[in-house]
Amino acid sequence: MVTAPETVVGLCARPYGLPMTGERAAVVVSDIRKHYGDLKAVDGVSFTVAEGEFFGILGPNGAGKTTTLEIVEGLRKADSGRVRLLDEDPWPRNPALLPRIGVQLQASSFFEKLTAKEQLETFGSLYGVPASRAAEMLELVGLTDKADVRENKLSGGQRQRLSIACALVHDPDVVFLDEPTAALDPQARRNLWDVLRAIQQRGKTIVYTTHYLDEAEILCDRVAIMDKGRILAMDAPATLVRGLDAPTHVVLQRGAMTVDDARAITGVEQVQEDEVSLTIATRRPAPVLSALAERGTLDGLQVRTATLEDVFLSLTGREYRA
Amino acid sequence: MTAFKSLSAAMVKGFLRDRLTLFFVFVFPLMFLVVFGLLFRDSGAEKTKVAVVGDGPVVSALAESGALELEKHDDFEAARRKVDDGDLPAVIVARGGAVELTFAAGDQTQAQTVLGVVSGTVDKVNLAATGVVPAFSFKAQPVEDASLKPIQYLTPGILSWAVSISGVFGAALTLVSWRKKQVLRRIRLAPVGPTVVLSSRILVSIGTAVAQGVVFVAVALTPLFGLELTGSWWLALPLLVLGTTAFFAIGMLVGAFCKTEEAASGAANIVIMPMAFLSGTFFPLEKAPGWLQAVSNAFPLRHMNDGMLDVLVRGKGVEALLLPSAVLIAFTLVVGFIAARVFRWED
Question: B82 and B118 in contact (C-beta within 8 Å)?
Fold first, then answer.
């Protein structure tokens, strides 16, 4: 039934997973490796990010996302392979490149006891940016009313937004964000999504890592799914999901109809019933839904299409666990 | 604003807003200065008090000389009991021409003092009564010797100690906290050199040391403590700067090996406390045994202390700076070099 893996592997085999846009490349990573003893943290990773693209590196904790990002940023040296960042080598430390990239680190990377505004002014001064830019950055991330609040008095979401503002204060071309939404409550995550979209609209290239597959699906132009130091698949989220050829699941309340009646509907491939619900799997949802409508069983109905989690499952053979 | 200026400003703000740091840099050493200063203020100035029963020319002469404090008693038995109980060292009984001294033999030094004063006064009164011109004349004159009033050695000592605290702790804690919080990493990703970051941090430490100097000397100069500065006090400034760089280098070395602020603060204490005790912070080293004086030569604090003492209260000139400065510069260079070699940007 599951024919998806071949399709996805086919995508992966494309050299460096060239972007769809065909614009100039901001990041070109070729076969980088980083081993710590027996642990292959990064084991032959290649990808290209076009200018203006929102690129996500996904995967569970320990997949090698952060190490990959650090090699691209120039914080770590790869054992082998090559990285070109805005047509420059990030390693060894390249001062000419530094003003053109922005890196968001942990939410705690602040100067002690300084206010939000002072943090931005201080980080900005490292790049020769006038202090006036602090106000603009605070507005961008929605922290204008927190300008005079000290970093340790900000909430988790506010700290994340401030730390992104600090990464952007010198107006870089490429922005690297490492798990910016980790450990945030759902509301704070959604606020941050708006910030990330606003940054992309400014024409920035964004490379970010996350272990929230649903979030990447919403935000990213393209994603690379990583596991155990390797990229398993890379493409636009919708393409990856479509390539999976996974059935759509229609979920009804238990007792809305019998299992046999459900099986009789044209296009239904599989029917499952548990204590609370009846789940119908189909690859042709339109006729199934209209048949259900005719029977008047649309109450409490849910339609669940395949997600990146299903892609991960089909690629690795195991459930996705962040 | 340049990176140097804004980094310095950021660190000064962080410093002034951190009450715990302010406490350990200013209040804590000041507490030692106040406590020891008040405790030792009157040491050596207290007069011995004795009981007196009766009156006469000898008692008048004793009162006039001011060598002893006299406590008048009418009843000999009561006075005698005070001596027996150890409250007073002696009782003098003057009846007509006879002067009788009863003293406690427990405290030899005090007994000898009382004995000497009383017998000397009796001799003098006897001589005056005979009207004979003395064959030998005697004159006593006080001079300032090398031994100092406590506040005179406490102030330079505690100031040097305080500078070592702010230097070592400042460097170690900043380094560890910045590394742990990835601020170092963030700075490394910005187009500023490490020299800018390091020099702005050292400048803040030097500013702190000068502020400590001003505060401590100002407190010690109040009449309560009575510090007397000599004319060459301004020579303390180069010592404050060089002391700061030496202790800053030590702090960088401590910070390179510690992963958490707690560990760094423990390690800094292990470095500072023994050094402070062995370097003459709380007592003059002249009174210490020879081996201790020899050991103390290994510590930069000892040399900073010596220099401070010489220029603040002993009135010595630039030549007194030579050895301490040389030692402090050597410490800065050697320890700084090692610290640079073991420096890590991240854990």
Answer: no
